[in-house]
Amino acid sequence: MGLDTKIGEFDRFIDHLPEEIAESLWFIPVREDKAPDIPEEESLRDEEFRLGLEEARERLEDGKNIGIILRDHFSVLDVIDPEEAEEYLKDLPSTLEVSTRSGKVHRYYLPGDEIEGKDIPNIAELRTGWRCVVAPGSHACDEGGNGWGTYSIESSQDVAELSPNDLPPELTVVEEGGKEEDRIVNERGWRIEKIMEDDEKLDSLLTRNVPPGKGYVDIEEARKDTIRKLLYWEFGPKMVQEAMESYRKYEDFDFDSLFINVLQDFQSNGEDTISDHLDDPDAYRPGSGVGKKVKRKTRRELEEWVSNQNRRVREDGAVPATFASEIALPSGESIEEGSTLFLPPDLVAELQEKEKAGRYIFKCPRCHELHFQEKPYKPSVCQNPNCESNGERTDGKFLKPVHPSDHEERAEALMDNYHFKTVAASLSGTSAAGLTHLYEKGVYDEEEAMGFIRGKVQNMNSKLKLSDQNDVINYISVATQVSEEKFGVSEGKVVLEDRTLDLENDELRPHKPSDLATSKIPIEYDPDAWCPEFLDYLERMVPSEKDRERLQELLGTALVGEKLHKKGAMVVGPTDAGKSTLIKIIRGVFGGRDNVSTQAPSTLADTRWGKAKLRNKLLNSTDEVSAGRLEELATLKRVMDGDPVEAEEKREKTFEFSPTCEHLYAANQTPSASRKDDAFWNRWIVIETPNPVP
Ligand SMILES: [Zn+2]
Question: Which residue range or ranges hold the Cytochrome c domain (predicted)?
C-alpha cells in the first residue's frame, strides 16, 4: 500500500548536511499529492505536527512522504525552468541538488545571512522561512494524481552557504500574485504570520471560511472586522490591503472606500491599538503567545475530555459549559455548537473569556448574535445594534437558549458526559425513578447516582426546583434501562483497579463502560507477584493441599462475578484455629465491603433486604455461623444456586435478581464422621482447619 519511497536518497541527503543542522530540522508529514498531511484549518507552524529526524525516516520507510519546513535552516531555490534560469543562476555557488518528481531541480543552501524569499516568475523561486519543500526520498504525484516521481539526489555534494550578495538582482520580490506573507509587516516591523499566532481571531478572519454565520451576517461585516483588527495591530493601509488579498479571497470589493470608512470609524471612536495594551511595545515579540485565543493546549485538554472513554468519572467541581460555536479539536473531531460538557472550572473560565462557551447562552434567530448571560434569564432584546430586529421585542420566540433549557435537554447533556444504567425491573409503570447506576472508574455504582444527578442539575441551573431534578432523574432512568442479567462483566474477565484482565489470553485492557461491570478488585495486576508469608500461613492453617486447592478454586470463581458452581465453602475447625482471621484476609483481598457482603445465613434466609445486599457482590463471607444453627444454611439453596430471588432495598420497591456471589462461611467443628452420612454437607466444600493457631 505504501508509496515507492527511497530511504537511501534521504540518507544521502542527510549525509551532506552539517550534523547539528540535520538534528534540528523540522519535518512534517506530507501526502502523496505533496499537500501537508494535517487536518484542515491547522497550521504547519504547530509543533504538534513536527517530526524529528528519526520519525521522518520511519515515515519514509513506511512508504509515506515527508516535507521539510525551511525556517532558518535552508533556502531552497526551486528551479522551475532550468534553461531560462541558467543565465541568472550561473554565478551561484554549486550545492546539493535534488531532482523533483517532475524532473525539475531543488537547490539547497544554508542561508549565510538573513535571506528573503524571492522569485523570478515562472523561472525560479527562492523559498525560505515557513515555506516547505518535499524531502528527498519522497514519491509524489500532482494534485490530479498524475505525474508520479521520486525526489532524488541529483548532484551529490555538501550543501553550500548562500549569502544575499550571491543572488542576482533579478531574483527580487514581484508585486503580481505576491503571496509572500512574510513580507506583510506592521509599522513596528512585526510580521503578520507571527501576529496571527497570537491573535486567533485575526487568524480566523484571514484564513477560515467565516461569513456568513459564525457571528457574521455577511462578508461585508467580516471585511470590516478584518480591517479593524489589522488597524488594531498597527498595519498601514498598503499592508492591510496586501494581507486581505494574500490570505483570503475577499473578492470584488472597493478596498479604498471600505478602508477609509472603517478607518474614520476607528479614529473617531478612539479605538485601542495594540500599543495601548502593552506596557512596553518594544519588549513584545509577536508569536510569544500573548493574547492568543483558545490555545492549542486548551483544545488538547478539551480533546482529552471528549475522546477518553473513561472521562465520565465523577469529577469533583466540574462545571457545565455549553459551546457557543463548533470547536475543532486537534484530532480532527469537533465539539458541536450547543453541546454541554462538564469540565474543570479553569478550562471553562478560559472558554468563557473567549466567548467560546458559557453556562447561559441565548441566540438571536435574526442575526445569530450570541448573548452570554451570567444568570439563566434571557435578555429581552437582541443587543446587536445592526440586527434587523432593531432592538424591538417582536414575539415570544425571540432569543433562543443554546444551553440545555428543559429536563430532556439537561438529561441528554448528562448522558453525553456520563454513563448511567438502570435496572429495568426496578422501574414502576408510572413516575418513580429506578435503580440507576453511575459509571465511575470501571464500574457501575448505584449508591451515589441519584445524588450525583441532583448535584449536576443544580449545577446547570441553581434556580431549579426538586421537581425539576426529579424530571431529569426519571428521564435518565427510563432512557438507560437494561435488564438485570445484563449487569456484570462478561465471562472470563476480571475488573481490576485501572484495567480489565481477560483471563482467556491473560491480557490487560482499559475499562469499558459497555462491560457493565458492577464490581472490581482494587488492586493492580502483577502476574509475578508472590506472597510467601501468606502461603506459609495458609499451609499451617489448612494442612490439606487438596483443601487449599479447593479454596483457591472457589475464590477464583468468585473473582469473575458469575455463577460457575452451586457449592459454598465452609471452613470448619476448633474455635481457636484462626478461621476469623482467614476470612478477614480474604475479605480484604477482595476489596472489602465494596465487593464482599457479610450477611449471616439467617438474614439471607429470612429477609428480603438481606438478599438485596448480595447484589453486585463477588463474595458473601462471615464467621458468624454458629454450629448449633447449621440447619439454617439449608434454607439458602436458592441463593447458592444463583436462582432468582426477591429482594428489596430498604424503603424501595421489591425486585427480582439472581445472586452471582460465592459463599464462604466459617463454623465450629463438627465431627467429620457425622458429616459423612449427612446429605446436607454435599452442598459444601469443607475446608478443615484442625490446628489451634498459637
Ligand atoms: Zn439579532
Answer: 333-480
- Give residues with Cβ within 8 angstroms of 351, minimum separation 6: 294, 298, 321, 323, 343, 357, 358
Contacts of 406 (CB under 8 A, 6+ apart): none
CA of 387 to the centre of ligand 1 (A): 4
> Residue 390 C-alpha to ligand 1 middle, in angstroms?
8
Region 321-349: what's the mean pLDDT? Answer: 84
Å from CA of 368 to ligand 1 middle: 6
User: What single DSSP character describes residue 286?
Assistant: T
Distance 220 CA to ligand 1 centre (A): 17
Question: If you measure from the C-alpha of residue 370 to the centroid of ligand 1, how many angstroms do you get, rounded to a whole number?
Answer: 8
Rounded CA Rg of the chain? 36
Query: Cα of 380 to ligand 1 centre, how many Å?
Result: 11
Amino acid code (one letter) for 640: M
The pLDDT assigned to 290 comes to 44
CB of 598 closer than 8 Å to CB of 625: no
Q: Residue 389 C-alpha to ligand 1 middle, in angstroms?
A: 6
Element (DSSP H or E) covering residue 306: helix 296-307
pLDDT in tens, 257-306: 999 999 999 999 888 888 877 766 766 666 654 433 566 677 778 888 77
DSSP code string of 202-269: HHHHHHS---SBTTBSSHHHHHHHHHHHHHHTT--HHHHHHHHHHHS---S--HHHHHHHHHHHHHHT
Q: Is the link from the previous residue into 18 a cis peptide, with omega within 30 of 0?
A: no
**Residue with the larger pLDDT of the pair 208 and 313:** 208
Measured in Å, residue 238 CA sits from the centre of ligand 1 at 34
Say how many Å lie between the CA of residue 204 and the centre of ligand 1: 22
Q: Which CATH architecture has domain 7-166?
A: 2-Layer Sandwich (3.30)
**CA distances for 16 relative to 108, 158, 160, angstroms:** 11, 5, 10
CA of 386 to the centre of ligand 1 (A): 8
Fold of the CATH domain 532-688: Rossmann fold (3.40.50)
Q: With H, G, I as helix, E, B as strand and everything else as coil, classify residue 315.
A: coil
Residues with Cβ–ion distance below 5 A, ligand 1: 364, 366-367, 369, 382, 384, 387
C-alpha 210 to ligand 1 mean position (Å): 18
Measure 214 CA to ligand 1 centroid, in angstroms. Answer: 13
Where in the sequence of the chain do the CATH 3.40.50.300 domains occur?
A: 532-688
Angle between helices 255-268 and 219-232 (to 10 degrees): 60
